[in-house]
Write a structure and sequence with these properties.
Structural class of chain A: mainly beta
Distance between the termini of chain A: 84 Å
Strand order of the largest sheet of chain A: 6-7-8-9-16-17-12-11-10
Mean pLDDT of chain A: 94
Oligomer: homodimer
Strand content of chain A: 35-45%
Largest interface: A-B, 195 and 193 residues
């Protein structure tokens, strides 16, 4: 294709996209049912029905909403630093963001997956992927804290992640941007892509307590793996990954990776892969990746660097990976609650192919192949196909399920959600969305047991939906009632960051899972804990000064400290002695160039402070804690380097005036 | 007081506080009127009535809500870095967070004030204070961007800020934690507080385009200045500051600063102060403080360090400052719409004193003084008093006004809002809040023209109001309808950070103020702009590599770059060529240890990247921009230091394979 043609093709695509995304819709409020207000209203003091966990996209964090009110309960820091809570700034949390590339304070968080037991959401943990520096995190739903992060070697653009198997045996990760493997010479021309670039699929084992470990990686051809979902029920033991750029282009992908009519969904027999690993077929390969864990007893993270992974080669082991042709750059890859149907959504397609697990198995057994792609058998399209949803819309992206035999697919280009029957493939209903939806979410909607009452659609374009806020606008979500035959729009609401995938679960499942309300002070094993005010102290070792400080309404102990010198490194280890829910204290000191601390009841947290100026530095509680919160403050005196002001600390009794 | 007594006194206060804050309320949903759901519901596609600007507290940012739906429109980064947008990480925005103490990535943002003309909210700018590193910021409401930040020397704990005069002549700042002045020897014992510690009040001049400059500071006694409000109408020309710790304690303030029955409100005649400045009475004092400004033409901030301020001495100039006794540690200091009444809220008091501006003037004229406090005349309490609201509740904190002669005061300890008549001082209504309110907000509620339809109360304790989220909970707000005689609770909603003060304005005032939707590419004067794809290039100067890159749906130009070497500093200057609203692009590269960029249409933004590994680093668009967004990516090849791989860049045409 000439450059001119490329440009024209690109332009045509932009035009189609722009037309659909900018055409002014009819007044959508007309489409809202009269009782929508009552349906989304949760009266003060009443609880919502569902927790909704929403990826933050470029914020790197996770938002927790309540449904149907769409109230934002909290934002949980995962992959980006959070100066508001001190996450990534306190000495205890810094190791959580360590990687093989050093400390990384930001990432792009796209997908979330709740842990499952027997294919049903179980409310224990939620997993999150990081795209830019490939990682998977586990958030503990007893504490709503990031408990573990594991880095993924040999990968770039970890997009088809963190989807899980039906008993949370594995959480997976694929490579969106193929690169030379970590232990190869990566200093190669970019246009040697086809020869040197590879994609790796990681299968991360999840233990009984949630602990993660890379069980094995599968080396796959250098293409772009996009999304994935595990088989379930009858298809348990298989995983399905969509991939695009099977053209293996390395530049101007919008044109060069849009050449083929069909790319692939790769079906992976992970139980077979497990057998090969047991049989010693895994190749131990050098790799460097961080594994970071949070200890709830010491309230401290540690980061370990691991040095190898086991790799299986998809070309050599002919019966673990199969390619299924899928129209035009497939994006979403979704498996219905029975495990029989696999839905591929080609983002440039005008139909939706639905594949049958039974047919795939038969096709494999009967070797109904159309040759190989880079050494991997390609199943004949028709042999794997249950059928196609005809004329559903333009640009299907993602599909969720209601557990009543219906599928709901978002269409970015034609800006709508379409409901269709999984078996008959008939379109049952369609609803416009404002504008250009990406992911959607039905509580349990990718599990064996969906709770098909609500559907949330996460739109990519906001424009005029809300009062304007300058050039930058929040992304917009829409809540639908899907309990009846027709989808009913209930509510529009802006969101945090850019929501991609989301998960939701009945509130009681999480609310009653043993929510931690505060840390018991007697179980606090932080090495710098101060378990009572009398034990508070300030200790110097060379130029390191450790302040063992306590906080309780409404004072710090000590609150007057003298004898700090320029050149010192001061560590404030603040233990919050409160033993009740929702009595955090904060700690900030003037001149700090990092963050504050928010310290939950019973917790110890550490702020490092390097004073830069001689003089008096006030510190104070940053979280309004009592009627006398404004009085919760203190002073540190900083003297010049070499000063002989003695190290003293006190509370309530004035220090002796030394000059 | 013996240490034992201190402990007992403290304990008693905690008990009172704990009792009121933890007593289980009756089911508050019973108190909600039947049509509350309809009243807060804003149908999809419809706009809210008010913008509500809410301080972020320990988040350092500002949240923008829409009322009555309580939907969060956006979070605006001001005083803390924002890895989500690149604020504080991009080369252009880094100077915004520079201070005399270097780069400070976090602060504690408590109060907001909309600009006013003739005492009415005018929708041009909103000002924000930083507590920990004393600063004032101005956010431009055409762009919703932080446009300017000025640091305040001689201060610590900048709390009574950023309140303004009725034509936005000045924005003020006080000192909460008195410290030795910056140019004094600060290496003094903390218990020399009374002798060496001072509080400064800053009067920052605001120019026609919003530009800020410290006109003068007033040196005041070493106490804790807490809150403030300008006079208006008849009292225009005066400013009122509450202060506590007039005991001048420096340790265990919860006891030692709660000894006196009355502290003070300080009345400042700033017009008189202006006269003294004109007359050359200001003393030019050395000081070091940063002044940071954002240029909308270059999309770039610059930071300048200033070196002096003019200081007036409140002890010497006897007719600019007067102390008005105010019961028990006054916190809120609020002036009614007429300017006649000044409400002081003693946070340990069980009554509310209301002072009369006319009486204050008469008392000053008649010298009805009770001696002096640290050289400042103290007006007799009764001479200044309009009257007291009797038995209103326990622990009054803040008051706002509805423009119909009514005041609304929050009570932290008794957890309620009380409506009372400003003239008669009669309590008219009371409503429980859940739990323990701090600030409250009525649109225009501290201006001459309140819009008294809604009231939002920001509570300090959340506990069981929403589905639990582990030990850490969001702070909770409550929306009331105050259009009738009785306050009606409409809605509870969690918030971002810790809201302290908030402001609100009719939506049209801001929506129709010339909202900027995108930057015109022809007006982009960023020194590293690339105004068309053909101008994109990569330039090496020594080990500095500048990438002049463009982004447009759906590719970067260039998207293949080779010849980068370990040891290089690479600057990606990304210009978003889009010229339509809400088409941002993002930019992230693997191995970055700072953030991503979000680039608004027509804008140029720069990410610094120091590659640490030899190999191929993918980059991609982080903001879903089109059906082919997933294809919007590229590669950088990093070679070892000293490599002779030539510097090349391309789009669509494969680079020559050089080996």
């Amino acid at each position: 294709m000439s450059k001119n043609k490329l440009v024209k093709a690109t332009f045509a695509i932009i035009l189609v996209s722009a037309f659909f995304s900018s055409c002014k819709p009819k007044d959508s409020s007309d489409a809202v049912s009269g009782d929508a207000a009552q349906k989304v209203y949760v009266a003060p003091g009443k609880y919502d029905e569902f927790y909704n966990f929403v990826s933050g996209g470029f914020s790197g964090q996770m938002s927790v909403y309540a449904l149907p009110s769409a109230r934002l309960l909290r934002v949980i820091p995962i992959f980006s630093v959070d100066p508001q809570s001190g996450y990534g700034y306190s000495e205890e949390t810094k190791p959580m963001l360590n990687t093989s590339n050093g400390f990384v304070p930001w990432d792009d968080q796209h997908h979330l997956e709740l842990s499952q037991t027997k294919g049903e959401v179980d409310g224990r943990w939620i997993f999150a992927n990081a795209n830019n520096t490939p990682r998977i995190a586990r958030v503990d739903l007893k504490t709503f804290k990031t408990a573990e992060i594991i880095e993924l070697p040999n990968s770039a653009g970890n997009h088809s992640s963190p989807f899980i198997t039906e008993n949370t045996e594995y959480v997976v990760a694929g490579t969106r941007f193929s690169v030379p493997p970590d232990n190869a010479n990566g200093d190669v021309p970019i246009n040697t892509y086809k020869k040197n670039f590879k994609a790796y699929l990681s299968f991360v084992k999840v233990g009984a307590k949630g602990e993660m470990d890379i069980a094995f990686q599968i080396e796959a051809p250098g293409v772009n793996f996009d999304l994935s979902h595990a088989g379930k029920g009858k298809s348990h033991g298989w995983f399905f990954f969509s991939c695009y750029n099977t053209e293996q282009a390395n530049t101007l992908l919008e044109v060069n990776a849009s050449q083929k009519d069909k790319d692939f969904i790769m079906a992976v027999n992970w139980k077979k892969a497990e057998e090969y690993i047991k049989a010693g077929k895994g190749k131990k390969v050098a790799a460097k990746y961080a594994h970071n864990t949070w200890d709830e007893k010491t309230h401290t993270a540690k980061s370990e660097i691991r040095t190898s992974v086991l790799v299986l080669d998809s070309k050599e082991l002919k019966d673990i990976c199969y390619m299924i042709p899928c129209p035009k750059s497939p994006h979403g890859c979704d498996v219905d609650p029975t495990g029989e149907y696999i839905v591929g959504s080609g983002k440039l397609a005008a139909l939706i192919p639905v594949f049958s697990f039974d047919k795939i198995q038969k096709a494999i057994a009967a070797k109904q192949f159309d040759g190989e792609y880079e050494g991997i058998p390609v199943i004949k399209y028709e042999a794997a196909l249950h059928g196609e949803v005809k004329k559903p819309g333009l640009g299907p992206l993602h599909t969720e399920f209601d557990g009543r035999g219906n599928a709901y697919t978002t269409f970015f280009v034609s800006s709508e959600v379409v409901k269709w029957d999984i078996k008959t493939l008939k379109v049952l209903d369609r609803a416009p969305t404002y504008y250009s939806p990406g992911h959607l979410c039905i509580p349990g909607g990718d599990s064996r047991k969906p709770f098909g009452k609500y559907m949330i659609v996460y739109n990519k374009i906001t424009k005029d939906r809300y009062l304007p806020t300058g050039p930058e606008l929040a992304q917009s979500a829409q809540l639908f009632d899907i309990s009846g035959d027709k989808m009913k729009l209930l509510l529009d609401y802006p969101t945090i960051g850019e929501p991609h995938y989301a998960q939701a679960a009945p509130a009681d499942l999480i609310r009653n899972n043993g929510q931690l309300k505060f840390y018991k002070i007697e179980e606090n094993n932080n090495p710098f804990v101060t378990k009572g005010e009398k034990e508070s102290k300030v200790v110097r070792q060379g130029n390191r000064v450790d302040v063992y400080m306590t906080s309780i309404r409404s004072h710090f102990a000590p609150d007057n400290i003298e004898g700090i010198r320029l050149g010192d490194e001061v560590y404030f280890h603040v233990t919050n002695l409160e033993q009740d829910w929702d009595v955090p204290h904060g700690f900030a000191i003037k001149g700090a160039d990092n963050a504050e601390l928010l310290i939950m009841p019973g917790e110890t947290t550490t702020l490092k402070w390097i004073p830069k100026k001689v003089g008096i530095s006030p510190f104070y509680c940053t979280d309004f804690c009592s009627a006398l919160h404004q009085e919760m403050s203190g002073y540190v005196r900083v003297s010049p380097a070499g000063s002989n002001v003695p190290l003293t600390f006190s509370l309530g009794t004035n220090l002796p005036a030394t000059k």
